[in-house]
Amino acid sequence: MKLPTSPLELAGYIEHTLLRADATHAAIERLCEEARCHHFRCVCVNGSWVSLARELLSESAVKVVTVVGFPLGAMDADAKRYETEVAIDCGAHEIDVVLNIGRLKDGNHAFVLRELRDVVEAADERLVKVILETCCLTRAEKEEACRLVLDSGAQFVKTSTGFGPSGATIDDVRLLRQLVGDKFGLKAAGGIRDAETACAMIEAGANRIGTSSGVAIVVGLSGKTTDAS
């Protein structure tokens, strides 16, 4: 995959993220201002902040992403569907939903697929990314999870919530890209804090980067570009 060569190109991959429980109104305002200033692709916020983020970014090209079933993915399937419907009503452009890991491990693939299809339907043609929490899965479970995501009508797989035991790895990004094919979306998230790591994830196959360190990443690439020139 072609690597970004400028901060602006790299910014086009970044979903500037703030999912902390203690995020405040002022912090969301700052997140959105940074996203607007640096031309990030998206901001990613918890559901209660979707309306505010949509308002703050109304005259920009930055999209608003929110999470559903976050961070564990273990709530009732109807709750995930309803959470998705509310997010869309509040103005979310994209949905990141956590796969039900326990049901996957039980081999209850019909349950997982039905739940994902319900979320995709509730998203009403908005883009849906499915968070696998790869650090909790075996190779076989990653393979099955990708098959289910492909069958569900979602458009992306995503490595991690950023709240699990570990985040994205190069090996997992390469594996997921192999499993979903060249055309499907792949978001790497969790522990990506510098330009070098972000670019390595892109080279491995990611076409979105979820990170709370978006500013540091693009500034870091700017420094590398300046040093090389």
Provide structural commentary.
- There is one protein chain.
- The chain is an alpha/beta fold.
- The protein has one domain: TIM Barrel (Alpha-Beta Barrel), CATH 3.20.20.
- The chain contains ten helices and eight strands.
- An eight-stranded parallel beta barrel has the order 1-2-3-4-5-6-7-8, surrounded by seven helices.
- Helix 4 (77-90) packs parallel to helix 6 (109-122).
- The radius of gyration is 17 Å and the shape is globular.
- Residues 225-229 have low confidence and may be disordered.
Topology:
Elements: H1 7-11, E1 14-18, H2 25-38, E2 42-45, H3 50-56, E3 63-68, H4 77-90, E4 94-98, H5 101-105, H6 109-122, E5 127-131, H7 139-152, E6 156-158, H8 170-180, E7 185-189, H9 195-204, E8 208-211, H10 214-228
Parallel strand pairs: 1-2, 1-8, 2-3, 3-4, 4-5, 5-6, 6-7, 7-8
Helix pairs in contact: 4-6, 6-7
Short description, anyone?
This protein has helices spanning 7-11, 25-38, 50-56, 77-90, 101-105, 109-122, 139-152, 170-180, 195-204, 214-228, and strands at 14-18, 42-45, 63-68, 94-98, 127-131, 156-158, 185-189, 208-211. By secondary structure, it is α/β, with parallel strands linked by helices.
| Mean pLDDT across residues | 96
Query: How many alpha or pi helices?
Result: 10
* Distance linking N and C termini: 23 Å
CATH architecture: Alpha-Beta Barrel
| Helix-strand string | HEHEHEHEHHEHEHEHEH
CATH class: Alpha Beta
